[in-house]
């Protein structure tokens, strides 16, 4: 296995029901970013929150959902890219019958 590629199994999000995480690149490899796959099951979501020191970038790999950023909810679809700037409130909802899959990258990394 390539030493620069790290994969782990999915883990349940510590506070959000129906959300699973799979970490790919961590701040242990690169102190500029970390990256993970986020799976949000139908009816699940990521509660509104902020990251005071990091920007969070998203790519919608599969499905459709709703993205909250800075007080506005937007419909997001497969193939779209989004950003939650540092210190701006954001969250997700999956009100569909399909799993929503996102790739999330933090810069600088969250620890």
Compact overview of the structure:
The chain has 111 residues and is mainly β.
Fold blueprint:
Layout (H helix, E strand, L loop, with lengths): L10 E2 L6 E7 L8 E7 L4 E5 L5 E8 L1 E6 L2 E6 L3 E4 L5 E4 L6 E8 L4
Secondary-structure element pattern, one letter each: EEEEEEEEEE
Number of strands: 10
Structural class: mainly beta
Reported for the largest beta sheet, the result is: 6 strands, antiparallel
The number of helical elements comes to 0
Helix content range: under 10%
Indicate how many domains the architecture comprises: 1
- Overall pLDDT level: 86
CATH class descriptor name: Mainly Beta
Categorize the overall geometry.
globular
Gyration radius, in Å: 14 Å
CATH overall fold name: Jelly Rolls
Q: Into which percentage range does the β-strand content fall?
A: over 45%
CATH superfamily: Jelly Rolls
Instruction: Calculate the terminal CA-CA distance, rounded to whole Å.
Output: 25 Å
Low-confidence residue ranges: 1-7
**Strand order of the main beta sheet, please?**
1-2-3-10-5-8
CATH architecture: Sandwich
